[in-house]
Every structure is written in C-alpha cells, then in structure tokens.
Amino acid sequence: MKILAVTMGRYLQVFLNLYNAMSAQQELPRPALFVADSKNYLKAEKVFPELAELVTLKEWELTGKGAVMVPDFERIARFQEACPQTLWNVLLCDRRIFFGRLVKSKQDYKSHYSYTQLLAILDVFLCEIEAFLEAEQPDVVLSFSSTTIGDYLFEILAKEKEIPYLQLKATKINNRLSLNDTGTGIPAHLTQRLADPVPFSQEVRKEALAVLDGVRNRGLKYEGAILFSWQRMLDKLRNAPAILANKAVQAYQNANTTIIKDDKHLPPTFRSAWYVNIVHPLRTYYLGRKNAYLQESELKEQGSYLFYPLHFEPEVSLQVFGKPFQNQIETVRNLALSVPVTMKVVVKEHPRSLGFRKLSYYKKLLAIPNVRLVDPFLPAKNIIEHADVVAVVSGSIGLEAAILGKPVLVLGTVNYELLPDSMVRKIKGIHRLDREIKQLIQDHNYDEEAVLRYISAIIDDSVAVNMYTDLLGKSARYSRNEETKELTVSYQRLSSYLINKVRVSTC
C-alpha cells in the first residue's frame, strides 16, 4: 500500500509519525509527499532525516516557477473543460495565493499575484501534480485539509484517475477524527450510515447521549476549539516585547535563508507578530469602548431575533463551503432584510477575528436598522438559548443550535444538513430567503432520535485522538484531557484506523 500524503504545515510531522506507526504494523513502501510551508519543512528535516530521501513535490518551488512563466491558456482551458467545477475554486481556497501576505493578521485582500500569474501558477500545479500522480502511482492519496492549491487539486485529479482519496478531518464531536472521501462535500460514509437501518452499538449510543448532555449543559466543546477571553488578549499585550524581540531575530534569520525568503506563501514574521500581539489586543479594547455590545441580560429584551455568528475570513469555511457568501456584511444585510419585520439580527464576532477588523466594518453592520452586536466574549450557547432561529454559512455553531432545539438555516455546505429539514434547512436560493426563514420557524420540529443517530454515525466511523493539542501541539485550544495519552498510543490508534479505512477504500 503506497501512500501519497498531501501536507500543510505541521501536518507533515503528523504524517511522518503516522507512517512510522503504520510501518510497525505492516510493511509499507516509502510514501511520496506533497509539502506546503518551506519553513516547517526545514524544521521537519532536523527531526526526520529520512525526509530528504522521500520523493517530494514542494509547493513553494511550483509557485515560484509559476510566478515567472507565461500560462498555457489552451492547456488550462482543456483542464477546465474536463473539470465539473470552476478552477477558480482551486485558487480561491488558498488564501495565501488569492489574498495578501498579511491575510491571517488583518483584512488584506489584494493578492500579490496578477491575474496572469495566478493562471500560470495554476498551470504549473495542474501539470506537476498530474505528472506526480502518474510517476508515483499511489494506492491512496491522504490529505489533511482543503486549504491549499495542492490540497484541492490532488482531490480532483486523484478522483479523475480513480485513485482512492481520503482526508483526515475533525468532526467537531469531542476529539473524534474521521477519514472522509472528500474534503469539500459531505462524506459518503456518513450519508450511507445514516441510511443504514442497522442500529448502533450500545457503546456508541452511550457516547452520543453523553455528547447531547454535554452540549445542553456546557455548549458544544470539541478538541481544538480556540480558547479566548479578555485575559488572553491582555497576556498577548503583556508578553509582546519578548515575543516581538524573538520574531525580529527570526525575521533576520529568514531573510538569510534562501528557501524561506523565496516562499511567498509565508507571512512576514515580524509584521504578523505585531498585529497579533499589539494591534489585536489594543483594537479589541478600542472596539469594546466604541461598540455598544449587548450583554446576556439584554438579549431577552431584544424580543425575537435571528443569531448569526461571523466567520473568520478569509477561511475555508467561506472560500470553499460558502463561496457565494464571502461578503459577510452583505450576508447579514440579506438576513436582516429577510426576517419578519419585527425580528432583529444579533451578530457575534468570531474569536479569531478579535482585533482583526477595523471599526468601519462594524459600523457598516450597525448601519443596518435591525442589526445588533453582542459581546464577543459571550459563549455562543448563551446567545442561542434566547434566539428564535440561527443562521450559519458553515461551522459548528449550527450543529450546537440544532442540538439545543433551535431551527437552523444553512447557507453553505455542512455535514449536519443531513438532519431533518424540519430542524436544519439549507437554502435553495437567496431570492427565497424570507420564505425559507418563515417556513423553517413555522415547521420546526426537534427530532432527538435523528440527532442521536447523526452523532452516533459520526462516532461509529471515527477515531478519538487529540489532533490539535497533542499531535499538532497547538496552544490556547480546548483539549479532551481524559483522552490524552502518550503520543505513541495516539499514533497507534490513528494508524489502525487509517489502515482499516484504506483497506475498505481500495477493495
């Protein structure tokens, strides 16, 4: 079983550890790799000396090549003709290509590539990835996200060549990870299991009931969720001098490291740290004084309202799963002008966006007559409980609302749209938004058995591993501490799951 792994950032280290764990269970040929993030690649080389011996396609080399060549428009047109979706999706999913280099730190929407350069980069990636698949002949393509050009194209081209494709994704249920046959749609195994009349085991159902109770008592808490509070913002400001000094040294070292210097995907080290540790906390404080945020005690006084949680942007949840709704000010405007005239729209900022947007963004939202901003530090559960209806593009808050018995309107693509239409309704057209909202509220019928079956289906075909906090080592994330074990145990569990899924997918 030969694996071609498509990795981004620290997922490279995760895969190499996973491959070693799999090799301990059965003999495997050497994998092939597609790697994004040159800086992380250099770090991985120091820990995994065998990395230099693996056949590797490097994203930054393809991007550099594409940025200086002339695209073959006829070749791109042929690819587009054979592809059922627009190839703009491939470029749009990669915010590092489509937007500015500071896009993770501020609203930086101007790409540093021209239209011709974008097409040339796309041309290079199409040719190189297709040739790579032909040369390596993998038994399965394993991915971890849909956030780069490579991620997106490997799925398209692998399926075109009938090579099994699997993407490891967090399910947002406890710390459950699932291997899906797609990174951009609803996985087939979930749809099939929900249609299967065979009952779930008592163990699975017991865990599903515990999830249900947990959401009702504490909200939907899942491993890897960002932890945020005003204290954390103050800590950033307090620790900023030491962090910025360290980042200044890193920036100097990066400027003298050819690979990193030439990798246009990497954000400017010092400027990014400046925004995150100085601008964001100060702006959050300033916005708190300028914006009249609703507190929980005031939510009941609003009367009926629709709750809309803002997404961090640009992010895969908008770029891929909700492409028509990337302008969230206009999304909120459409919702606000489609609800019953006596209903308000309560908007909550995403924790990752605290201090990210300027005051002018919120002024545009508040210029809509029936829109109110709620305290961004207030738990989503507290806002959902007082809402009449919840609208989302994607994201876990919609699932939390459905479990809490609220009607949910979905604008993008989410797995939980598999719940009954009387609970979760995906809109079929923006021109019918007012009727969709009215009908959803009128027809809402909470079906607990359907919710339990949905959660059980996720648990039944997933594995419990702390991906973000343990394997990726991300800080300021919610962790399922009761599941934390030695990393070797986590990798053994994940490798057994992967071997079984690959065996099924290649049968």
SSE inventory with pairings:
Elements: E1 3-8, H1 11-25, E2 32-36, H2 38-47, E3 56-58, H3 59-67, H4 73-82, H5 88-92, H6 95-98, H7 115-136, E4 140-143, H8 149-160, E5 165-170, E6 176-180, H9 188-195, H10 202-218, H11 230-255, H12 258-262, H13 269-290, H14 296-299, E7 305-309, H15 316-319, H16 328-336, E8 344-348, H17 359-366, E9 371-373, H18 380-384, E10 389-392, H19 396-403, E11 408-410, E12 424-426, H20 433-443, H21 448-460, E13 463-464, H22 467-471, H23 487-505
Parallel strand pairs: 1-2, 1-4, 2-3, 4-5, 7-8, 7-10, 8-9, 10-11, 11-12
Antiparallel strand pairs: 5-6, 6-13
**Distance linking N and C termini:** 12 Å
* Strand residue content: 5-15%
CATH architectural group of the domain at 3-198 and 461-505: 3-Layer(aba) Sandwich
Helical fraction: 40-55%
The counted number of beta strands is 13
Low-confidence stretches at least 5 residues in length (pLDDT < 50)? none
Count of helical regions: 23
Radius of gyration, Cα only, in angstroms? 23 Å
